[in-house]
Structure formats: structure tokens, C-alpha cells
Design goal:
The protein has about 290 residues and is of the alpha+beta class. The chain contains seven helices and 16 strands. It starts with 15 loop residues before the first strand and ends with a helix.
Length: about 290
């Protein structure tokens, strides 16, 4: 049996990373172990795709990075266009044709306490070649999901409109449990018991030819989510944003996920609820592929 080669750890890779205004060798982009972002989750980030050397919706992602930092109470010490230019620069230096970009901003190591009045903000942008998260074959089969134990929090208890690192702890726990149980993903409810999203993607149902999706009032209104909703409307498909109860899964003929990683990925099942990879999913997958010029 052929051995599967282990991926190269991210701290052992070659190339360059944009780090606090300078392009540095990949292996030298280091921070101290006593930094505030690590210990107190004061970190925000983005995930951006590169398709055929073109960065997909860079301005929108940079806007959200700055907004996320603002919500967490710290300021990114660069202008948005400086971050956009740096992103284009590092993609060119790395020679990325189809890949992923990870900008991140976090509070530094000047102060090891809850209080942050002495900390500075650190910023890095890394990019690497990355194929589609789900293969075409896997998409046509649809992903198998299970319900997560953890729920998206009340926006009065967490900064839910920020793409903040700390909010992904329950995503990691839910994803690991799902994978251990043989599922591709986990579907999370919100603090009210309503359908919210998966661990890293927005969630949609197709009911009688209409696309239904939860109102993003306690989770991110994804950039891919908005893109796919626009594509649906342009194709004459009605889009309904509303609160959705988990028992309404029984009313749907199709289901799918959207996100920077997932793109448009059909869902075959959520535990005992089954869905077809039907015409709406296939249409939106094709339209998204055409948009990004895969």
C-alpha cells in the first residue's frame, strides 16, 4: 500500500511572508511565546483565495479585517491600501497561481495581562499554493454533516461579527468531533437553538426551488455567502434570509455550504436528513466557477 506523504509543517516551509511591513524569510517570521494574541485570543484574521493569479475580492476581505480589529478594540497600524498592496506583493513573490492567503493581526508581547494599554499591533500576510478544499468528485457526492454539540454564542456574550480567532475554538472542537465520527463537517445551531452555520462555512437550504439561509445575526455574513446569494438572484432564484429551525431540514430538497475554503459545496446529509445534489446546487456551483474563472 502506498504511503501518504505527511504535509510539511507550516513553520518548516520555504518562501517569504510579509511581516510588520517587511518581506522576511518564511522560517524567520516568528513571534514570542508570550504574546497577547496567543494567551488572550486578541487576534483577527482573513482567508482569501487566489484564482489564476487573481486575488478574489481582496478589498472586501481587507475591509472586514479592519472591522474585526475595530470590534476587538485595536487598530491596524497600516492603511487598507497598504495591506492590499502588501497582499499583492507577497502573492507575486511567492508565485501563487491558485492558492490561499492568510492575513492576521494580533496584539503583541509588551504586556501579559487582560489589560492591553501597552500592547502594539502585529500584522502578517502569508500565502501558499492550495487546491480546492473539496474535490469535484466529493462535491458531486455531497458532504456528510452531523449536528455539533457547541452553539454559536449570543452577540451580547461574544464579538460575533468579528472574524476573531477566539470564536473558532468551538469550531475546532466541533470539527474534530465530526471527523472522529466519520463526518466531513458539523452544523452548528445558535444560542436560541436555530440553525446558524457549519464550523467554517455558511449554510443554505433549497426548499421548493427557493434558497433559504439563516439571518447572520450571531455569526459572520460571509463574503462568499453574499457572492452566491447575488449569483442566485441573477439566475432568477429567490433568496430568503430568515430564522430556520432545525426541524425544517426535513422540508429541504437540497442543501449546500459556502465559504472561502468550501466555495459552493453540496450537502448530502445532516445526520438522518438526506438531500440531493440537485439543479440549484449544480447551477450555483457552475456560476461560482465561472465567476472565479477557475
Amino acid at each position: 500500500m502506498a504511503q501518504t506523504q505527511a504535509p510539511i509543517p507550516f513553520d518548516k516551509r520555504d518562501g517569504f511572508i510579509w511581516f510588520n511591513g517587511q518581506v522576511v524569510p518564511w522560517k524567520e517570521a516568528k513571534i514570542h511565546v508570550l504574546n497577547h494574541g496567543l494567551h488572550y485570543a486578541s487576534c483577527v484574521f482573513e482567508g482569501i483565495r487566489v484564482y489564476n493569479k487573481k486575488i478574489f475580492k481582496l478589498a472586501e476581505h481587507t475591509d472586514r479585517l479592519f472591522k474585526s480589529a475595530e470590534i476587538l478594540g485595536f487598530e491596524i497600524p497600516y492603511k487598507k491600501e497598504e495591506i492590499n498592496d502588501a497582499t499583492r506583493e507577497i502573492v507575486k513573490i511567492q508565485g501563487i497561481e491558485n492558492g490561499y492567503i492568510r492575513p492576521a493581526a494580533w496584539r503583541g508581547s509588551e504586556q501579559m495581562a487582560i489589560l492591553t494599554n501597552l500592547t502594539t499591533t502585529q500584522v502578517a500576510i502569508a500565502t501558499w499554493t492550495w487546491p480546492a478544499y473539496y474535490t469535484d468528485e466529493a462535491k458531486l457526492k455531497g458532504a456528510r454533516l452531523t449536528m455539533a454539540q457547541w452553539r454559536r454564542p449570543d452577540p451580547m456574550t461574544a464579538p460575533t461579527q468579528s472574524k476573531a480567532a477566539g470564536l473558532y475554538m468551538i469550531s475546532t472542537m466541533s470539527k474534530n468531533k465530526a471527523a472522529k465520527d466519520g463526518f466531513a463537517e458539523a452544523l452548528m445551531l445558535d444560542y436560541r437553538g436555530l440553525i446558524a452555520e457549519t464550523t467554517s462555512s455558511n449554510f443554505f437550504l433549497v426548499i421548493n426551488g427557493e434558497v433559504h439561509t439563516p439571518v447572520p445575526d450571531c455569526f459572520l455574513d460571509g463574503i462568499t455567502r453574499r457572492t452566491v446569494m447575488d449569483l442566485a438572484r441573477k439566475s432568477g432564484i429567490k433568496v430568503v434570509e430568515r430564522q430556520i429551525k432545525p426541524e425544517e431540514l426535513a422540508n429541504a430538497q437540497e442543501a449546500f455550504m459556502t465559504g472561502t475554503a468550501a466555495e459552493v459545496t453540496p450537502v448530502a446529509s445532516v445526520d438522518n436528513y438526506k438531500f440531493a445534489v440537485g439543479p440549484v446546487c449544480k447551477r450555483l456551483m457552475a456560476d461560482y466557477e465561472a465567476l472565479v474563472n477557475r
